[in-house]
Amino acid sequence: MTMWQARGGEHTRRAVMRGALAAVPAVAAACGGGADATPKPSAPGEMAGKLSLALVGGDQQHPPTILEGFRAKFPKVQIETISGAWTPTLDKVAEMVAAGTPPDLWYGEDGRATGWGPRGWIRDLAPYVKRDLKESDYYALGAARDAEGRLWGVAGDLQVVALFYNTSALGEVGLKPPTPDWKLDDLVDAARRLTDPAKRQFGFFAQPNYITTSWYLFPKLFGTGVLDESGSKSQFNQPKVLQAYQALMGFIERGHAPPVADQGKYPFAPAQGAEGRSALSFGIYGAMANPAYREHTFDVELVPTGPATRWTTVIANVWVIGKASTMPDAAWEWIKWHSQAEQQTARASSGTGLPMNKKAADEVVSQAPAPPQNRRAFLKSLDFAGSLGVNAVWQEWRTAAQNELIKAFRGEVSLPNVLQETHRLVQAELDKFYKR
């Protein structure tokens, strides 16, 4: 996903998804409920038919040159495309699934794919990967793999979280740039020194209502997760989660981060309408595609080590093949084509994501123009990165958590009370799938 985009229209999306899910059993029954057979390779010249392809995220994430090259390689395959912004296009896909006419191939976060698979929307790609791809050549190739070994999607690109910092702001207060040895206490101290009301500058852009860079990440730094290792049990009621959120909220309470209600006015890279800025921020790789960054002086470093460990988030945006597809081999050829270094490098030119192909990723971080100078920090971060609590009900549990946690971050309800209720609500969503 273009993850830096606001997750607007969530209520509408959930309504669409609920309607689609009601129709899924008919789709799954028509396609058979067993494991997908091991595919046999097809030669490009032999492949013919109509392939429907949903390019979720539009041209920015899917450069036309990649599609043009695929068409040239497979001239007998007629391609129909659906293309557009992330949320509206995924809503369209859900509507098509509900109508029994899903596309052959589409795109979404790994957490969505691990929910689509058990519901019969998409195919297990493990047999294709075993046949055609060498996992050591790619990053996060198994990101959408479930506990049974089924692989529900193959990454198109990665979103990795690192620490962004305004180099000019640090220089103004005589603060040395962050280093890989920074601890969370160093971030707290830097945020204090960088906060300057006269300049309308906050030290740290806390973003407590953003799962990727805040409320999922911070507990990991304190040595726990909001879900257990199985992904079926909530841990929002654990003491370390409380400590982590107290640390996150502390930036706001001390006045070193924008209040939740005003955080949009003080982003890390000021855009039109901003009243000020924040000098430090956790951010994903794709944030750099935001036009506001082009005129911004910044660099990146590893996320500081927390009280318990170092950890950061990696999200794999993955290609999936519809269960009902009549052209699964052609759909797989698209995924395989897209995974090659040449296509990955072309895609990365827009800056929307880090290539999943290791050769392409190394080339991009080595040759992409600054800023940031230290782009390789994103690759180094993959050594200690983890997924965003993906499971079969990722959409449901994270939405329930977000809607409740925001009450504490806004100061409407005490944090301990919010965490108890969040625990109850999240466990209820998990139980709907894991205890049925």
Summarize the structure in words.
By secondary structure, the chain is of the alpha/beta class. It folds into 2 domains: 10-158 and 315-372, D-Maltodextrin-Binding Protein, domain 2 (3-Layer(aba) Sandwich), CATH 3.40.190; 160-313 and 391-434, D-Maltodextrin-Binding Protein, domain 2 (3-Layer(aba) Sandwich). Helix content is 40%, strand content 15%. The protein contains 17 helices and 10 strands. It has helices at residues 10-31, 58-61, 64-73, 86-98, 110-116, 126-132, 167-172, 184-194, 211-215, 217-221, 239-253, 328-338, 341-348, 358-367, 376-381, 394-409, 415-434; strands spanning 49-56, 77-84, 105-109, 154-166, 201-205, 277-284, 298-301, 312-321, 354-355, 385-386. The strands form 2 sheets. Strands 3, 4, 5, 6, 7, 8, 9 and 10 form an 8-stranded mixed β-sheet that branches. Helix 1 packs parallel to helix 4, helix 13 runs parallel beside helix 14 and helix 16 packs antiparallel against helix 17 (415-434). The radius of gyration is 22 Å and the shape is globular. 49% of the residues are buried.
